Amino acid sequence: MPTDNSTPVSTHTMDADALQKLIYLLHATDDPLIQEQALITLGNSAAFSVNQDIIRNLGGLSVIGGMLSDCVPKVKEKALNALNNLSMNIKNQEEIQVYITQVCGNVESAPLNSDLQLAGLRLLTNMSVTSDYHPKMITSIPCLLHLLSEGTERTQIQVLKVLVNLSANPAMTRHLLRGQVPTLLLLLDNCTNRDILLRALVFAANLKKNVNNKDGTMDQYSESSIFFKLFGDSTAFAQKLASLLHHPDAEVKEQVVRILTQ
């Protein structure tokens, strides 16, 4: 679905000529208000798969990606929203992946819990669904874990979507286990927002599965690491899981059982 509510009329019916004019306008103007509106229109049109291909074939991805270097936060945010819709296409992902490092940088430098930060996290979520581009996100793991501790619930949910995707890849296990999240066990509580709790449990379950398969266990981990909190001194973790067996949500209990029986 479109990522912006200010949808121009009938963006799905725009033909290649109209889209080409928008891309040219975006490339030619320095006016941030015009850039923002062009990005909104391109982003909403990209919610329709036929337009995703047209925009790529017209060279629009590089023009939109170029906006990530803009100094105006709203322009960067709308560029990220447009790329997010465009990234629902595998061929587009192959071009968008060159911006992952820059997107990670935008997430890290953006104000905490801002729309800009969330837009970057949404794009990273789409780009991490497959493991193809996970190596480009390794250096951002400390930032993601920091946001998991410091962010609002809205930010935490979006961060966990990325972390769950990364944790499904055995090759990322040791990088994640080295990370530090002082509040990780605090999230595993019956009072935690259900969406956050469920994703945190899936994250832990994925890591445990990979640890059991001997991925990432050859490294040394500090006492503040995720590895130590979950698997090193597991008493507190085990107590959390025992309590969560009484959670009213069936999916939550399913993930707890998954962790306990692996």
Automatic annotation (TrEMBL):
Sorted UniProt keywords: Membrane, Mitochondrion, Mitochondrion outer membrane, Signal-anchor, Transmembrane, Transmembrane helix
Positions of transmembrane segments: none
Keyword Transmembrane among UniProt keywords: yes
Membrane topology: Single-pass membrane protein
Cellular component terms (Gene Ontology): mitochondrial outer membrane
Family: Belongs to the eutherian X-chromosome-specific Armcx family.
Name of the protein described by the UniProt record: Uncharacterized protein
Lineage, opening ranks: Eukaryota, Metazoa, Chordata, Craniata, Vertebrata
